[in-house]
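Handout, section B. The chain below has 218 residues.
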Amino acid sequence: MNKIDYFFWMNSDWAYLGTDRLEQIAAKYQLKIRYMPVDLPDVYRRTGGQLLGNRAPERQAYRIVELNRWCKKLGIHVNPMPKFMCPNADAASRIVIAADRMGLSIVSLYKAILRAEWCDDRDISDREELKRILAEEGLDADRLLLAADVPEIEALYRRFTDDAVEAGVFGSPSYVFNNELFWGQDRLDMLEEAITSSIGGAARRSNSQSSTGATGGR
């Protein structure tokens, strides 16, 4: 089964903007999404990136302009400068990974965590706040918090970060399909084009093989 490898930071406003469209694309083409939260500061350190607060004022200002444009275009609200902006996201990331490993549907969960930061001025680095978010999602908060703290989940979190760098990822969100990298929610249209091209090519190959087999049978 074809899949989309989805590398994202649990502090990523841009990932929040792309969530619904990614799900729609995957459902449309019956693709599996592999959700891989990453430690983006570590990715930046290894790929030459800079956290927002370290960027030039001009870049920081343009981010707000562009974010407002996309919010208007998509009809989605995001506060570009929330009260608790980009705190440590390790615990939130491990919770999402643990929930996924437990077979829980994580789309609503990771979107709720992103929304808490970017829409509701909540501190997603605070365990009590995370516990409240989990409860609001109807999940067993105590169980998930315990599961998120086991060494296996931390190891997966680090492996996803390594996998991201190996795949060429340098920012969030990033999508990899058929070993092709697409960076940013503004590249989702191009991701879909790559998917349709791949599906069309596979269909043509299948039809060609069927035709060849029928001719040989005669």
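Note. The first strand starts at residue 3 and ends at 8. Compare this with the example in section A.
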